[in-house]
User: Fold this.
Amino acid sequence: MRWVLVGGLGAVAFGVLALARGETISAAWLVIAAVCTYAVAYRFYSRFIATRVFSLDPRRATPAERLSNGRDFVPTNKWVLFGHHFAAIAGAGPLVGPVLAAQFGYLPGTLWLVIGVVLGGAVQDFTILCCSVRRNGKSLGQMAKEEINPVAGGTAMVAVLCIMIILLAVLALIVVNALKASPWGLFTIACTIPIALLMGWWMRVWRPGKVGEASGVGALLLIAALVGGGWVASHPIGAAFTHSGTTLTWMIMGYGFVASALPVWMLLAPRDYLSTFLKIATIVILAVAILVILPPLRMPALTPFATLGEGPVFAGKIFPFAFITIACGAISGFHALVASGTTPKLLAHESDARMIGYGGMLMESFVGVMAMIAACTLEPGVYFAMNTTPAALAGASDVLRTAGFVVTPDQMQLLATQMGEQTLIARTGGAPSLAVGMAHIFSSVTSVLGGKTATALWYHFAIMFEALFILTTIDAGTRVGRFMLQEIVGHVWPRFGETSWYPSIIASSAVVVAGWGYFLYQGVVDPLGGINSLWPLFGISNQLLAAVALCVGTTILIKMGRGRYAWVTLAPLVWIVAITMTAGWQKVFSADPKLGFLAHAASLIGSTDPRAPRLIFNDRLNTFVALLFMAVVALLLVVSIREWWLVLSRRKPATVTETPFVETGYAATS
Amino acid sequence: MPRPADLARRMRRVVRHVIGAPDYETYLEHCRQAGHPPQLCEREYVDQFFASKGKGGRCC
Assistant:
C-alpha cells in the first residue's frame, strides 16, 4: 500500500510537470517526481537485479575480505563506502549537462535524468560493480579482454584514452569560460594551489597522516581566499588576475602538466580532499536550500528549440542531443571505471553492492535534477544571454523574441554587478549560469534566515566549488592518461614504462596535456564558443564507454547462464548505441553548418577570415574523432554479438572467470 | 554509550575513508587481525598509499 502511494504521488508530480503550460510551477513537483521514481526503482528494480539477475550472496566473501591488506583492499562500512563512491563518481558532468540541456525547457532533460538513471545509468554502475567484485576487483578493460576477447579489451583501452582527452578538454573549457575576465574567481582558484601545497606538506612531512588537521587549515584558508577575492577584484591589483581565454588556456595547461608530474601527496591528494569536502557539503546545502525555498521554475516545460532544434546553446534536436548533452546524471560510462576500480576493493558484503552501485548513481541523478532546477529558476532571457555566444544569439534572436525570452543590456549589467562580475553576457559553458542560479537560491535562504543577501559571495563560492573539483578531475585525469601512455609505450620501450623514471614522466605528461590542450585551445578560439562542438563530442565519448560497459555486462550475464535476463543491460545498450551513432552521424554529415563539422568546414572554404584555415582543420579533426568513436562502438558491438552468438548456440563453452566461492567470516561471527 | 574520545576517533576514521585518505589505524587493525606485526611504519604506509592513489581516476 505504501509503495502504491509513493508511485501515485510520483505519477501526479509527473502529470503536473508535463501538463503545466504557460504558468510558473514550483520546483517541488520536480523533486517529488524524481524522488518517488528513485524510491520505487530502488525498492523493486534494483532488488530484482540483486536477487534474480546476479543472485548476490551475503555469505560470499568479497575481495576486500579475502585479500585484505589494510591499504587497497579494506572491508568498509556500506554507508562510508556509499559516501566514498559518490564522491568519486560525482563531478561537474551532472551539474553542467542539465544546465545546457535546459535550452529545451525543464521537461526533456528531467525525464531523461530520471528515467535514464533507473533503467540505464544505475543498472550499468551496479552491473559492473557486481562483475568486478566477483573477479577480485578487476578493471573494465581486463574484464572486456577476458570475458569478450582481446580485441574488445584493446578497444576499451583506446576508448578510455580518447574519452580522457576529450573529457579533460571540455572540463578545462568550462573553467576557462567561468574564470575569463573574472579577477575574483581567478584569485580564489589560484589561491587553492598554494593552499593544497601547504596541506600536502602538512600531512606528508610535518604531521604525517594528519589529514583532518591539514584539511581544517585548508578549508579556513579557502574561505579567506574567497572573501579576499572580493577585495582583490575591487583593487588595482585585480588587473593581475584579469585574463583572456587564451591566456587562461596556457595557464591551465601548465597547471595540468605540473600536477601530473609532481608526487601525488604534494598537490593532487590535498586538492582532492579539499574538493571532496566542498562537494559533499555544497550538494547537501543545495538540496536543503531547494527543499526549504522550493523556488519557482521560470523556464517553460518546453522551449521552441525543443521542436525546432537549432538552439543557440548547442545545435541539434532533442533526439539525440538532449541524451548526449546529459551524460553524467543519467548514464555515464566513466562510472564503470570507478565501479571496477576502488569501490569493489572496499565492499565488505556482496549485498552492499545494491546500495553502493545502484543507490550511488540515483544520488548523482538527483544532483543533476538540482542543477536543472538551479538553471530553470533563472529568467529564460538571462539564461540564453549567458549561455550563448553573440554569433549564435544573433541567429536565434527571432525565436527568442517570439518566445518572450528577452533581456535588456541594463538588466544583464545589473545582474553582473550583483554577482561582482564585469559582465555575464556570453559566459558559455554552463558553470556561470549554474552559479547565478545557486547564488539566488543560497542568498534567498540566508536572507530568509535573517542574514545578509551576499549574492556576489555566493556566486563566487559556487564558481570556486565547480572549478575546484573540475581541476581535481584534470589533475587525476592527466595523471591516469600519463600512466596509460607509459604502459602502452612501455611495451615497445620498457624503460619508458617505468612510472617513476622522470624523463618518461615529463614526456608522457607533456603528450597528454598537449592532447587535451589542443582541443581546449580550439574550443576557446572557436567563434561558436567551443562548448557547441566539444560538449557533444564529450557526450558521445562518455556514452561510448557506457556501451563498452554494457557489452561487458551483457556478455557476463549470458555466460553466467542468465541470458533470459540479458535485457536488463541490452535495453540501455540499444538506446545508447542509437543515440551515440545518430549524434555522431549528425555531427559529421549534417548539411547544417551549425551542426555538421564537414558542412561547417565547407562553409569556410574561400572565406577571407584569417582564422578560416585553422577552423577548417579543427572541423576535420573533430570529424576524425567522431568517426573514430563510431568505429570503436561498431567494432565492439560486432565482437560482442559474435561472442553472444557463439555462447548461445553452444559453439563455445560458457566459461566465466569468477573467483570461486569462499564463505565469509563475517556471516559466521554475526 | 561511547565515550566522546572514541566517538571522535570513529568520526575521524569515517571521514578519512569517505575522502579516500590514508588511515594507518586501519592498517594496524588489519595486522592485528592477520596475526602479524606491522611491516610498515606510518610514513612508509602513507607513501605507499599515495603511490597507489595516484593511479585512480575521478569521474567527470
Residues 2-59+80-182+242-590+621-660 of chain A form a domain with the Amino acid/polyamine transporter I fold (CATH 1.20.1740.10). Chain A touches chain B through 58 residues (CB under 8 Å). Strands of chain A lie at 25-26, 296-297. The mean pLDDT of chain A is 90.
